[in-house]
Amino acid sequence: MQTLQTNHVMNTYSRFPVKLVKGKGAYVWDDKGEKYLDFTSGIAVCNLGHVPDVVKEALQEQLEQLWHCSNLFSIPNQELLATKLVENSCFDEVFFCNSGAEANEAAIKLARKYAYDLNKSPHIVSFKQSFHGRTMATLSATGQEKIQTGFQPLVPGFSYLNYNDFADLNKLINLKPCAVILELVQGEGGVIPATQEWIDQLHAICKENEILIIVDEVQTGMGRTGKLFAYEYFNFEPDIVTLAKGLGSGFPIGAMLAKKEVAKHFSPGTHGSTFGGNPLATIAGLATVKELVETDVLQNVQKMAGILKGKIELIKESYPFIKEVRGLGFLIGIEINGEPSNVVQLAIKENLLILSAGKNTIRLLPPLTITEAEIEVFIEAFQNTLNKYKKVVG
Ligand SMILES: *Cc1c(COP(=O)(O)O)cnc(C)c1O
């Protein structure tokens, strides 16, 4: 077979020169048969590891039955997945779509419709260094200039406050927005967890002023932090939560969950999606959520995250350029003095896949199913990487 020299894929990602063709559990293989330990999980997507048997078998069975049917008909798998998500959260209703941006888009539309119906301001407040997606409304909600530059005019009605900043929260009272949207651990922005005290105050102000709280759990959801949803750590109930990445174990699916007092503002014709919640996507979601709530995967995250962080803290002493190790569960950030993408590139040579986040943070997103032996493999490869980086930076 002749392969084309030219690459016709549009240039929206700078890609590493590695062609991954196979995965199982915590490992992936490239087209040359080289094996890599994957501490990216396809950016928080393959939370159960690559090609998990339970999801594979559920998809295989569904492949023989029905691939697609429109949302003009009841879709049994969609109803089962909605029920599973509702049973394991504080929400009442679920809207299905195909990605994180679409889930946030749906949340923004629902908040706007709620405001319209109740004669409230359509304004929505988000936070600096946030990331909510690449569609026009979600990049307008994203508090990062580099995501917005070149795409003005933005969707109006968004403003940005400082994250974890108490003084800025008082501005909410004057702005009187219909909603705030936030991540509980800012992922792309540099792995920055919210503090409990700040969330307490945000929640109190929002309750008192009837401001909806939308929590973007596209990255933190589906067990990534050691609970099904990260909000469970923070002692409050959001009005809306969005999910995507880990929900389908690699099969594209997004979801917006809402409490019924908010959800009732959508009615037939107000929002929709051709593919959203189709039989294949929702069976992948159902098998994934079942695995997360019915097995000890979440306990594994809590246990292994402690072990992994402990080991990183130990080796940290040998590398003065490491400033801080932070995060929640298996969303881990290692802040360095330097360029994290250089570390990421050196790691590939050690057959280890990791990520960067923000300006100066290395991001680790191991599969939730990781074993202690695999953590040992990681530590060895990561130390080799850091030793090489140390030589480069002197
Ligand atoms: C990845 C991500 C998104 C965007 O999801 P897509 O599926 O790429 O549209 C939105 N919010 C957060 C917090 C994310 O991490």
TrEMBL record:
What does the note accompanying the cofactor annotation read?
Answer: Binds 1 pyridoxal phosphate per subunit.
The reaction(s) annotated as catalysed by this protein in its Swiss-Prot or TrEMBL entry are:
N(2)-acetyl-L-ornithine + 2-oxoglutarate = N-acetyl-L-glutamate 5-semialdehyde + L-glutamate
User: Which CDD domains does its entry note?
Assistant: OAT_like (cd00610)
Residues bound to N(2)-acetyl-L-ornithine:
R134, S273
Enzymatic class:
transferase
* Compartments where located: Cytoplasm
Query: Which keywords has UniProt assigned to this entry?
Result: Amino-acid biosynthesis, Aminotransferase, Arginine biosynthesis, Cytoplasm, Pyridoxal phosphate, Transferase
Q: What is its main location?
A: cytoplasm
Among PROSITE patterns, the record links this protein to: AA_TRANSFER_CLASS_3
Q: How does it assemble?
A: Homodimer.
- What NCBIfam families does this protein map onto? argD, PRK01278.1, PRK02936.1
Q: How is this protein named in the record?
A: Acetylornithine aminotransferase
**From what organism does this protein derive?**
Pallidibacillus pasinlerensis
